[in-house]
Write a structure and sequence with these properties.
Layout (H helix, E strand, L loop, with lengths): L2 E7 L24 H13 L6 E4 L1 H6 L1 H9 L3 E4 L12 H19 L5 E2 L13 H7 L4 E2 L20 E5 L2 E5 L5 E3 L2 E3 L4 H6 L2 H13 L5 E4 L15 H8 L2 H14 L2 E2 L1 H7 L7
Parallel strand pairs: 1-2, 1-10, 1-11, 2-3, 4-5, 5-7
Antiparallel strand pairs: 6-7, 8-9
Helix pairs in contact: 4-5
The chain binds zinc ion.
């Protein structure tokens, strides 16, 4: 069983779910660090002969088209992380559809290849957004990797399904790759990306990844370019959120290297092909 490694391509100021979250109208004025961080992350991935999936925020694809083109040139899969990077449950179905479609088209135009995958900002598909999958199919997506099937500060949808599955919406099918969760003493936990990956010692992430693989599921790893940049500016937030957002930034690059050496990695696109999964209208 191969595992999947993904990068959510966004900047240091794109952290969501706290009162001081910054919206897109404020981003232009901020010093960007995404170019150096994303290329460095691609260089780390490039130390092995590995292809990964890059979920671009449409705004950054438009502002830094060279980054998207570089990902394509190096053979990685390009996918969409929305255009404005807003929480899904704070959008209307129409706003969500337009945002998802816009980002897909921009990324396809710049990258020169089809975009099949979507990841929601903050894994924010919830019980409040029952229209989510239908709108994604309508916006031209074949797969989604946004359901977080456990408790989470924002987002989270307790489907009880931990493996990839096909959802039949009114308008067509979409393949869902829920974020990887495993049960420990009856608690559903993630060890494989973002703050979870930074917080836990690597040996725990490794052990839990092997457990997931034994359960017959791929592990879906995910990182953000800011997470290998300990020097990035900090946003003003409460103590708990600050801890989750900034813990162990210094050791994350080394953890990424270990994941890429210890596990067999592929993209969502290739996993779908190799496992003969189907989605689409
Ligand atoms: Zn994001």
């Amino acid at each position: 069983m191969k595992n999947i490694f993904s990068i959510d391509v966004e900047d240091w100021f794109n952290i969501l779910g706290f009162p001081g979250s910054l919206s897109i109208s404020e981003w232009d004025a901020l010093p960007s660090r995404i170019e150096a961080n994303f290329i460095r992350l691609l260089d780390v991935v490039g130390e092995k002969d590995i292809k990964v999936t890059c979920f671009f925020v449409g705004y950054f694809a438009e502002r830094f088209p060279a980054l998207l083109k570089e990902a394509v040139k190096r053979g990685h899969e390009i996918a969409s992380h929305g255009y404005v990077h807003n929480l899904v449950y704070e959008m209307t179905p129409d706003e969500f559809f337009m945002d998802a479609e816009k980002s897909r088209k921009i990324i396809e135009d710049i990258g020169g290849r089809a975009v099949k995958g979507y990841r929601a900002a903050g894994f924010s598909v919830t019980e409040e957004t029952p229209w989510y999958f239908e709108k994604l199919v309508e916006a031209g997506y074949r797969y989604d990797s946004s359901v977080f099937p456990a408790d989470r500060q924002h987002g989270g949808l307790k489907t009880g399904i931990f493996h990839p599955y096909v959802i039949n919406t009114g308008g067509g099918e979409i393949i869902e790759f829920p974020m990887t969760i495993t049960k420990i003493f009856n608690a559903s936990m993630c060890f494989f990306g973002g703050g979870y990956l930074r917080f836990f010692p690597y040996q725990i992430t490794k052990f839990m990844s092997q457990k997931v693989m034994k359960e017959g599921r791929p592990v879906i790893f995910y990182v953000h370019p800011r997470e290998i940049d300990p020097e990035h500016p900090r946003l003003n937030m409460g103590t708990m959120k600050r801890f989750k957002s900034y813990v162990n930034l210094k050791s994350t690059e080394a953890k990424v290297r270990k994941i890429l050496s210890d596990f067999e990695i592929t993209t969502f696109e290739d996993f779908i092909k190799e496992n003969n999964l189907h989605g689409g209208k």
